[in-house]
Amino acid sequence: MSRLDAVIFDVDGTLVDSERDGHRVAFNAAFEAAELSDRWDIATYGRLLKITGGAKRLAFWFESTGRSPGEAAELAERLHKRKTQIMRRLVEDGQVQARAGAHQLIDEIEASGVPVHVATTGTRAWVEPLLEHAFGNRFHTVITGTEVPDLKPSPAAYLEVLRRTGCPPEHAVAVEDSANGVQAAVAAGLRCVAAHNPYTRDDDLSGATLVAGGLDDPALVAWFHRRLRKRPDE
Ligand SMILES: [Mg+2]
Question: What residues are annotated to the active site?
């Protein structure tokens, strides 16, 4: 069991239940603001989550509902900008909350002297206020889709965190909720602990070292507890 020097968290679906009550609501509000009749119910949005990145998800949707590729791309770009603004407002209004167990887990990691970082595909414009609002700026290195446009399952965001922190991958662990996220972490050479949510319960998370039902799952809490207590320098 190698030493743990860094914990790198995904944001969407991992630290916060942002998909169903944040992003989905913001996408629907953006459709409405653009006077489009498109709406994503909870089940539809669950299927669309297989496409990583909001702009790509929109473009796929517009093409699959009969718009030409050109029209789909133009609409996706415009709607995504509007959606990001709306998401930011939802975040600032406190509508996106930390997932159960998130604060306790981060408290324990910090108390053992291990820094916490973030590697997300989300846009910095809403990720930063979200982390500040829900967690109070506890993350040392925060890499978002704004700095690293290669979306998960690309390992790019994780590799950038490792590069900036100088932490070797074998001494870090990623915390993820989805198949794309687990793949990204594993491709970066990281161990990955997965905490699925209702949207990702059926994802293939088999690349993860541990698959748990949430951040407050006793198996996940125990996994961290054992490794955090076994730091050789204590
Ligand atoms: Mg996620």
Answer: 10, 12
- As residues whose CB is below 5 A from the ion ligand 1, the structure lists 10, 12-13, 177-178, 181
pLDDT digits (tens, 9 = 90+) for 48-62: 988 988 999 999 999
Calculate how far, in angstroms, residue 80's C-alpha sits from the geometric centre of ligand 1.
18
Q: Identify whether the C-beta of residue 153 lies closer than 8 Å to the C-beta of residue 165.
A: no
Tell me how far the alpha carbon of residue 192 lies from the centroid of ligand 1, in angstroms.
Answer: 13
Pick the CATH number of 6-17+97-229 from 3.40.366.10, 3.40.50.970, 3.40.50.1000, 3.20.20.60: 3.40.50.1000
Q: What are the domain boundaries of the chain?
A: 6-17+97-229, 19-92
The amino acid that residue 101 corresponds to is G
pTM score, two decimals?
0.86
Report pLDDT digits (tens) over 17-56.
888 889 999 999 999 999 999 999 999 999 998 898 899 9
The CA 56 to ligand 1 mean position distance, Å, reads 16
User: How many Å lie between the centroid of ligand 1 and the Cα of residue 39?
Assistant: 22
Burial class (CB in 10 A: 0-12, 13-18, 19+), 112: middle
Cβ(135)–Cβ(101) below 8 Å: no
> What angle do the packed helices 24-33 and 69-92 form, to 10 degrees?
120
In the DSSP assignment, the letter for residue 71 is H
Task: Tell me if domain 6-17+97-229 and domain 19-92 are identical in fold.
Answer: no
Q: So what's the architecture of 19-92 in CATH?
A: Orthogonal Bundle (1.10)
**pLDDT computed for residue 234 by the predictor:** 45
